[in-house]
């Protein structure tokens, strides 16, 4: 069972219009002990946050006996793109991810999510791909030095022409070729690309570092609001010996006003699953 | 007699974000749209990175194609910026983003600038965020006045803010600031979400309605949603509105082929405008 509360990891992006403390209290109220930390304003403004603020943040998390399984800096909404042909943008984007790594290290978070960025749709994919490989390669080296692992998440095709499904993800892993760089599986993004966790496990096995178990395929939905087979996904993950957390990256405008009931509903659906627990359960 | 003309329809680059800005400009020329509204967001124009010299180059790109910039709309819902932010640092950063955006608008030669109210934490009293938003808007409006720019204020849907979500809250803000440089923009989506109509807006604000974001439901291309296009156009025409109607299409499904979404919208709009002219001839 996923019931211990160890493996379900609520994520603060659902509470982006609430204070971070409000979110942390909601996690405790739902008897969860792990969170996936979304690095976005106003909760964590990666570009601006100071060491003092990070130390304060660490206290706010640990005083509630919570642990963070993954830091997911906002890259989709923000003007961050490591594959940009604009030098200023790519430089700023690299600095952003480097800073995020420092934040993860100071908070003692073992894993950080990264994405490939994107090239223009009317220009050569190869050049943008090369720029992405170069910067991801440097991020990987820094992560290794800090003892942090990375999970590369495919974007949707509406966001990127680089890493947007399991095939392009496999190609990027091969190009970077480092054990530090693993895979993040977002069940909704995968489903939108016509894939399921099974495809990912078959291709990547234990290189899957993190799973965001969310309903879809049109959006990042709470369980029951989409059409994906949650029980089957959970079973597939556990069958393959996945021992990580299940991040609840729920975000949809309709959830923002009353996130409490959305979170409770999703946690309830996961707890009702008869899925054999992994090492942490 | 019908007042509304095809030339009042303006294009916008928001759904062209997977392509360079020049691609969007060329597309407008091809679609025979003369008026454009500039969405200032990456990768087209991210103001924190840009120098004014680059802004001048964008102006040249617009004018050399015979296009006319009718409004500057900085990205403010996806990015960290929030003029009502509680955190002093985030608030300072947001104000500097908007002040710089006003300078850019002046440099680009437009006298219209769109702004949303920002938001306060949903778990704090609304009035606290309101006061921050009001003070920020007053400062921005003062600067806009110096630059000869009018700011048009747009309500958001409740799911995106707790401050200005409907006509009464918009009117309250305008009355509290009382500036000839702060006027009204109607966006079809928040208007419909609040259960309000063009008639409500024109009856309340009259000629202070300076701009309209005119899209089908969920910011889709016309024909892809469920808004009553003929009724909308008739209302707008009844009040002899002389400003622009911008196709602010943001639906992700249009990102891969943005021009098609504009072409489809224009076909619907032109047909209805022609019908209106026939009916009232």
TrEMBL record, chain A:
GO terms for molecular function: isomerase activity. Gene3D superfamilies: Divalent-metal-dependent TIM barrel enzymes. It comes from Paenibacillus plantiphilus. PANTHER family: HYDROXYPYRUVATE ISOMERASE, XYLOSE ISOMERASE-LIKE TIM BARREL DOMAIN-CONTAINING PROTEIN. Residues 25-272 form the Xylose isomerase-like TIM barrel domain. It is an enzyme of class 5 (isomerase). This is Fructoselysine 3-epimerase. Its EC number is 5.1.3.41. Transmembrane segments: none annotated. SUPFAM superfamilies: Xylose isomerase-like. Keywords: Isomerase. The lineage of its organism: Bacteria, Bacillati, Bacillota, Bacilli, Bacillales. It comes from the Bacteria.
TrEMBL record, chain B:
Pfam families: AP_endonuc_2 (PF01261). Keywords: Isomerase. Residues 28-270 form the Xylose isomerase-like TIM barrel domain. Coiled coil: none annotated. Its EC number is 5.1.3.41. GO terms for molecular function: isomerase activity. InterPro entries: IolE/XylAMocC-like (IPR050312), Xyl_isomerase-like_sf (IPR036237), Xyl_isomerase-like_TIM-brl (IPR013022). It is an enzyme of class 5 (isomerase). PANTHER family: HYDROXYPYRUVATE ISOMERASE (PTHR12110), XYLOSE ISOMERASE-LIKE TIM BARREL DOMAIN-CONTAINING PROTEIN (PTHR12110:SF21). This is Fructoselysine 3-epimerase. It comes from Paenibacillus plantiphilus.
């Amino acid at each position: 069972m996923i019931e211990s509360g160890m493996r379900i990891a609520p994520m603060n992006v659902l509470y982006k219009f609430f204070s971070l403390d409000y979110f942390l209290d909601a996690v405790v109220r739902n008897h969860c002990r792990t969170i996936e930390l979304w690095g976005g304003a106003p909760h964590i403004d990666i570009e601006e946050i100071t060491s003092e603020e990070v130390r304060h943040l660490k206290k706010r998390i640990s005083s509630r006996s919570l642990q963070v399984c993954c830091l997911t800096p906002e890259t989709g909404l923000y003007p961050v793109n490591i594959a940009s042909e604009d030098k200023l943008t790519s430089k700023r984007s690299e600095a952003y991810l480097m800073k995020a790594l420092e934040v993860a290290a100071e908070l003692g978070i073992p894993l950080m999510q990264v994405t490939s960025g994107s090239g223009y749709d009317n220009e050569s994919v190869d050049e943008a791909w090369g720029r992405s490989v170069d910067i991801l390669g440097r991020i990987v080296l820094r992560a290794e030095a800090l003892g942090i692992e990375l999970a590369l998440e495919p974007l949707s095709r509406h966001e990127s022409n680089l890493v947007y499904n399991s095939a392009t993800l496999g190609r990027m892993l091969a190009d970077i070729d480092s054990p530090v760089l693993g895979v993040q599986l977002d069940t909704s993004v995968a489903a939108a690309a016509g894939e399921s966790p099974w495809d990912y496990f078959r291709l990547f096995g234990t290189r899957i570092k993190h799973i965001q178990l969310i309903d879809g395929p049109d959006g990042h939905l709470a369980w029951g609001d989409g059409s994906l087979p949650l029980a089957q996904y959970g079973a597939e993950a556990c069958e393959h010996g996945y021992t990580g957390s299940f991040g609840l990256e729920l975000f949809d405008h309709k959830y923002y006003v009353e996130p409490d009931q959305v979170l409770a509903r999703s946690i309830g659906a996961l707890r009702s699953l008869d899925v054999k627990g992994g090492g942490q359960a | 007699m019908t007042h509304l003309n095809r030339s009042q329809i303006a294009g916008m680059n928001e759904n062209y974000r997977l392509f360079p800005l020049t691609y969007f400009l060329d597309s407008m020329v091809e679609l025979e749209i003369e008026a454009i509204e500039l969405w200032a967001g990456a990768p087209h124009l991210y103001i924190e990175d840009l120098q004014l010299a680059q802004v001048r180059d964008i102006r040249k790109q617009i004018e050399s194609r015979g296009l006319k910039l009718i409004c500057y709309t900085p990205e403010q819902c996806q990015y960290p910026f929030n003029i009502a932010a509680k955190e002093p640092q985030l608030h300072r950063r947001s104000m500097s983003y908007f002040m710089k955006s006003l300078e850019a608008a002046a440099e680009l030669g437009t006298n219209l600038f769109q702004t949303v109210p920002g938001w306060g934490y949903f778990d704090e009293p609304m009035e606290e965020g309101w006061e921050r938003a009001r003070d920020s808007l007053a400062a921005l409006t003062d600067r806009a006045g110096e630059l000869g720019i009018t700011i048009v204020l747009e309500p958001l849907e409740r799911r995106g803010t707790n401050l200005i979500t409907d006509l009464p809250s918009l009117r309250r803000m305008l009355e509290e600031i009382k500036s000839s440089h702060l006027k009204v923009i109607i966006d079809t989506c928040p208007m419909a979400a609040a259960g309000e109509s063009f008639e409500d807006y024109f009856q309340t604000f009259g000629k202070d309605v300076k701009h309209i974001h005119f899209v089908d439901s969920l910011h889709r291309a016309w024909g892809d949603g469920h808004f009553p296009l003929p009724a909308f156009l008739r209302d707008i025409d009844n009040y002899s509105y002389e400003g622009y109607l911008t196709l602010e299409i943001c639906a992700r499904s249009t990102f891969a082929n943005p021009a098609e979404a504009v072409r489809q919208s224009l076909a619907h709009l032109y047909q209805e405008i022609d019908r209106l002219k026939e009916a009232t001839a």
